[in-house]
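Re-run with default settings, no changes from the original entry. Doing this only to confirm the output is reproducible before filing.
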Amino acid sequence: MNEQFLPVICGFDIADYAFARIFHESLGVRSLVISDIRRGPINDSRILDVQLVPLGTLADENRFIECLRSVADAHPNQRLILCVNSDEGVEFAVRHRSELEGRWFLPYSSSDVVARANSKNAMADVFRSAGVAVPRRTVLDLREPATWKSTLETIPFPVVVKPEDGADFHFHRKQGLWKAMAIGNLDQAFVTFEEWRSHGIGVRLIVQELIPGDDTTQWVVNGYVDARGEVTAAGSGRVLLGLHQPDVIGNAAMILVQKNQGLIDAGIGAVKAAGLRGFFSLDVKVDPRTGTPYWLDLNPRIGRGHYYMKIGGIDLVRSIVADMDGEESEFQGITREGIYTVVPMLLANRRYIRDASLRKRVVALRRQGRAVNPLAYPADANARRAVYRLLNGVNQIRQMHHFYPHPTDSGF
């Protein structure tokens, strides 16, 4: 066991458990998870310790920074790695870089780069400068209803609407703001925006052309950029099924780990154009009418479905440790296919994967034992976690049938 490293993970979700898992698999270390609530993914685990903090600590900058100082004081001889996987978490880390980096390794970009990456509109300009296609889009301010009509007339319907700053969803979700929403026509847009405004939501929205295609037309590209600006890891996967609950829509439920060199190369170009450092995750949708990839988002963080890269043979921890030590790292790419899933594999059926050849490929990989749920870690197996995974699987099926009972030609 390598006790000199201590990954400190903030959160309680599947992605946070997967963070702990990749460190345990690579270095044999137990992570410290800081959370203000206990949730199934991080409970009853032998690969992590949970430090519960008062509710709201992670959302309060002063309390959060004080919490991290106390963690550093309690572990004076270990190298601390701050692992966050939310827009607001990354923004917090880079705002406080000068206070933290003496003791903490922060695998994130500078404040200006993070702000640009978290701005959907600014990233559209970066994508265009990198020579890749983006959907037509505009920016609408909910605080200025007099401008709505003229703004919306510049974009063809149907559209997808999402907060211009990804962190705004976190702060306004309880008032009804969606992470991403499809809107079919102008009248529906006016009703939706007026409802949000009446609930006190005064943010800028991206309104962008909806590219058609079900979940299987979407791809993800993830990786790592070291302090020299070199991409030391990059992989890709084809989304087989997305999550469709309003608070997690846009995240993948099931990914076919598959090397798509064209998308990887284009993604690396966009990442370099943005000046990114540390983790990155990109979302792409391929227009089934033309085969054109449209680049939707670049996130300056690891991404919820990042464990698919481990399934594909990429050891992100190796890239992180080399970066911490100021060493060059050999590039890592996808070396094997597999399936990443956080839902039961029985959903990989004719209902949701309508392409027969794609479904056949998925069935073959499943029979080869290449379908992996990051929560199902053999080194962390116990009865309580098995019961949680069973109940969580049942709940995921129920949620899918409620929010996305049948695939659509839009993915919404």
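The mean pLDDT is 95. Residues 215-403 form a domain with the D-amino Acid Aminotransferase; Chain A, domain 1 fold (CATH 3.30.470.20).
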